[in-house]
């Protein structure tokens, strides 16, 4: 009798250990598949579908404003979340600010230049030092691999005058 109880206890233990092992194996498998998909999406430049109803906009300054530098630019977003660059979470991305209307290909990952600023830490504002005169600003919200969503999510392009 004692032996039977022991045996049952041991087999229960073994069964749960097997279950844990199977879960762990499935988690590893899922992680590997996810990683493979991410690498493929990045290599092939596959655009992420835009989160439904998401909007990106510049909170301040406003179109037509005359400001004294440095200029605080505040980024607005609704219907989507913010995640750091490189972190793939559904419905999230990070902000990019286009200064003075650079030409960008919305089907490719955005380049990092003086005119295409990335906010890959998840920032929602920045301070720009701009020469006196007219400047344009536009936000593009892009996915974890810096690639604009499909369809792309960009703000209105605003023009400001720096004194
Ligand atoms: Cu980026």
Q: What do you see in this structure?
A:
- The protein is of the alpha+beta class.
- The protein folds into two domains: 1-44; 55-162, Immunoglobulin-like.
- Helix content is 26%, strand content 34%.
- It has one helix and ten strands, in the order αββββββββββ.
- The strands form two sheets. Strands 2, 4, 5, 6, 8, 9 and 10 form a seven-stranded mixed β-sheet that branches. It has a three-stranded antiparallel β-sheet with strand order 1-3-7, with no helix packed on it.
- The longest helix has 43 residues, at 2-44.
- The radius of gyration is 24 Å and the shape is elongated.
- Bound molecules: copper (II) ion.
- Copper (II) ion binds at residues 85, 94, 96, 110, 118, 120, 142, 146.
- Residues 85, 94, 96, 110, 118, 120, 142, 146 line the site of copper (II) ion.
Defining traits:
single chain, 163 residues, alpha+beta, Immunoglobulin-like, 2 domains, 7-stranded mixed sheet, 3-stranded antiparallel sheet, 1 helix, 10 strands, binds copper (II) ion
Summarize the structure.
The chain has 163 residues and is α+β, with helices and mostly antiparallel strands.
Task: Quickly count the domains.
Answer: 2
The CATH architecture name of the largest domain reads Sandwich
| Structural class category | alpha+beta
- Quote the CATH topology of the largest domain: Immunoglobulin-like
Coarse morphology? elongated
Query: Superfamily at the CATH H level of the largest domain?
Result: Immunoglobulins
Backbone CA Rg = 24 Å
| CATH secondary-structure class of the largest domain | Mainly Beta
Can you write the helix and strand succession as a string?
Answer: HEEEEEEEEEE
Mean pLDDT: 90
